Amino acid sequence: ARAAKEALGHVKTVHASRTQAKPDTPPALRPAKPGPPNRTVYDAQGAETLPGKLVRKEGGAATGDAAADEAYEGLGHTHRLYADVFGRDSIDGQGLPLDATVHFGRLYDNAFWDGKQMVFGDGDGAVFGRFTASLSVIGHELAHGVTQFSAGLAYRNQAGALNESMSDVFGALVEQYVGNQSAAQASWLIGEGLFTPEVQGQALRSMKAPGTAYDDDVLGKDPQPDSMDSYVRTSADNGGVHINSGIPNRAFYLVAEALGGNAWDAPGRIWYETLTNGSLSTTATFTVFARATAAAAVELFGTDTKEHDAVRRAWETVKVKL
Ligand code: ASN
Ligand code: ZN
Questions:
Q1: What pTM was estimated for this model as a whole?
Q2: Among residues 119, 185, 273, 301, which one has the fewest Cβ atoms lying within 10 Å of its Cβ?
Q3: Domain 2-149, CATH class in plain words
Q4: Which residues contact residue 152 at a Cβ distance below 8 angstroms, ignoring those fewer than 6 apart?
């Protein structure tokens, strides 16, 4: 039960016209078109040594092992979201190989990014099943790598909750993109399908309604706040990074709800721009981040546009001062 609880705690494109006087962007400054992914999946075979035994490389046949094949496919889907929608080539924007290890440890109730690769446990079978079963979890872990190579948000206090929220946002977007779900159709759940039938709960977290994802005898009630009124001040979990992420998660959901359509379009572009344009400091607070999303909305869509309004209103609803 304690291990399970810990898991919850963690658990412009410019078209140059021919007649334009301005010269094209010089080749050295032009971002390279994203290439295909370069995935490698390893099997730790129940040990906690990384990376483990290589079981599938890019282009290799399915292994027949569900965890290994889910990891391979999930990394591919996530790479495709960044490439197709945001023009980003992998975790570092430069085609970084995607490495993942499955069957990490025994009855291991978690998944993580270790600074270099993704790692997935099998779950204890009582509370959690295998962590590769949820595409939003695979997208969440890969997004930790993207954050590391972009804004570099520190993993503590509000910056840490923003780091966690970035992973939930892009984890949710991968699932929606692959399922071709609009913001209105999406579940906005992170880690759906991870709990065994023994657990009273639908997922690790809900971005739409933070604090309602589960309520169980073993796990207790989902502790996520849905506005600054219930912000949790704690020294546990690096200052409650997996708890307070509920606040920026809901802000993203509210932007997507207000704008309708697909969340990876305008909302995703605004958040991606904020994360990657170099304007955030590594210790950004919720207010600093909120202002940066408003600035990104203005930059991409213009002042007082519906996108700019949706962003301002969302932060107002979750009571983050702009
Ligand atoms: N599943 C957690 C996460 O990626 C693991 C952790 O907190 N290190 O946030
Ligand atoms: Zn995380």
A1: 0.92
A2: 185
A3: alpha beta
A4: 282
